[in-house]
Design brief:
18 strands; zinc
Length: 278
């Protein structure tokens, strides 16, 4: 089917050229094993394996990105980058975990995921001693202590802890909805919204109440439900002190005070007019 879809998930780690099948990649890699003279980059002096590799490398210096996604307009220096990007639109996930069968669109995601099956956590937070499997996870966690938000929206200046948060936020300004439901074709600004929406079609309810076993499609729904068991009512009325599990119930309750206040004001004004008439 990849001959029809154009998907090429197997990439040469030397020149980044992509192929639809592993056999084609192996045959290609033999080219690099042959003795050949290296070609230097005239800008930075780096020695490259061939003229073709040099042409691709030059784009780092020129900023040229000739391969553009026809769906969202994102551009890439290499065709392999475009093919890998297209999986974010098609939903193809050719790399599967041998332990839990979870699938991923990119090989580096699978490599990262495999580490979570290992019990080893070599990276430790110097503030709270929480341990992590991945070094980048630990560095991101450190921002919860420092308050650092290094990723800035170029439109409104809002700052974010993680790059993907900033990228998703940017779509609020552009209105770009690149995440498409494969069931009903509805479009979404963020992948996370698409993931939640899919559960309408699949019936998946991954969040289970530890008290009664009831299951929910969203974590927020589970959190609200759990308060029924714990008796927690975090939303309090500033007028009468009555508390509620959900904020929406508090908002509805507050309208009663507002209506009562308006009636009181009208009665007071009416009495004042009558008094003035005497």
């Amino acid at each position: 089917m990849r001959s029809h879809t154009g998907v090429k998930p197997y990439t040469c780690d030397i020149c980044n050229k992509s192929f639809p099948r592993p056999g084609a990649l192996r045959r290609h890699q033999k080219i690099h094993n042959k003795p050949a003279s290296r070609v230097p980059c005239e800008v930075c002096g780096k020695s490259l394996a061939s003229v073709h590799v040099l042409e691709v490398h030059r784009r780092i210096h020129t900023g040229e990105k000739p391969f553009e996604c026809q769906l969202c307009g994102r551009a890439f220096r290499q065709v392999g980058g475009l093919y890998r990007h297209m999986r974010s639109h098609s939903g193809e996930k050719p790399f599967s975990c041998s332990v839990c069968n979870k699938s991923f669109p990119w090989k580096q995601d699978l490599t990262r995921h495999m580490k979570y099956h290992s019990e080893e956590k070599p990276f430790s937070c110097s503030v709270c001693q929480k341990r992590f499997i991945i070094h980048n996870d630990m560095m991101t966690h450190m921002r919860s202590h420092t308050g650092e938000k290094p990723f800035k929206c170029l439109v409104c200046g809002k700052m974010f802890t993680r790059k993907f948060q900033m990228q998703e936020h940017a779509r609020v300004h552009t209105g770009d909805k690149t995440f498409k439901c494969e069931f009903c074709e509805k479009l979404f600004l963020r992948r996370s919204l698409l993931v939640v929406h899919r559960r309408i079609h699949t019936g998946e309810k991954p969040f289970k109440c530890s008290f009664c076993g009831k299951q929910f499609s969203q974590c927020a729904s589970l959190n609200t439900h759990t308060k029924i068991h714990t008796g927690e009512k975090p939303h309090s009325c500033s007028v009468c002190g009555q508390s509620f599990i959900q904020r929406s119930n508090l908002v509805t309750h507050m309208t009663r005070h507002e209506k009562g206040s308006k009636k009181f004001t009208k009665k007071t004004q009416h009495r004042s007019i009558l008094h003035q008439g005497k």
